[in-house]
Structure formats: structure tokens, C-alpha cells
Amino acid sequence: MRELRLELQGRRLVFPDGKAVCLACGAEPVGTRQVWFEDMSGVGLDRTSQMMGSVQALAGRITFDAPLCRAHRSKARMLSLGTALCGLAFIGMIALGMWIVGPTSARKPKTFWQQWPLALSLIPALPGYFLWQKKDRGGLRCEVRRDGENLVLSFPE
To answer: Which residue of 18, 72, 134, 145 is surrounded by the most CB atoms within 10 Å?
Structure first.
């Protein structure tokens, strides 16, 4: 795994050479996007060692503004939009299923044709769940851990 060590000042990342690059591809950034990562510095430590860490580490999340190029900023926006659309589709399918099924009655058995929208609601729910997991990271494929005042980003090869 490649590691990149950056200084964190507030929510802003400070690069060693002073010039920011896109964290996803290394190109020149056009802007930043706020991203959240689970703090991996507490993995494997006991509870007392975790309590000695910073407030953000205790919360379990690290928040910073990630510099991204145009392509990766739009990809991060699409992750958020896709998550919202999957959520709306899921709610719509549940509402359609409830409308078709109608009021429940113990005497009236439900047929497959009355229950299919409820089963189909899983189709947008599963991709929506996975998009929800990725949207906070802004499309970045790395692990982040805190090392004092620095952040260490570990990228897979």
C-alpha cells in the first residue's frame, strides 16, 4: 500500500511541497469536497489508548476538505445524487406496494401480483446502500488514520 502523509490544519490538508494535487489521481485540483472517513488509528488499540486520542478520533470520524480534479469532483457529486435517487425509488416502490395491497385483512390472502412491488423495492435498496457507504468518502479509495497532527492516507496498489 502506498502511503501519503499530510498535515491537517483545521479541515484543510497541507501538502509537503505546498502544491495540492487530486487525492484520487494526482492531477491538478479544481476545488475541494468535504469527506468523512472512519479513523483507522484506533484499530487494534485498547479502550484506554483510544480515550487518550483527539476528540475527532474519539468520535470515530475524520473530516477534511479533499482536493479533487474536475472528473473526481463530479464523480463524488454523482455518488450523492445516485444515493438520493435510489432512496426515492425505494420509497416509491414501498408506497406503490402499499397502495396495491390496500388495507390488510385476515380473510383475504395476498397473491404474488399484489406483493411484487414490495419485493422489487429491494432492487434500488441494495445499490443505494452501497452508494451510501461510498458517498461520504467522495469516491476516494483509501484508508485514513491520524498520526499526531498529520493524516496518513493509505492507498491500495
So the answer is: 72
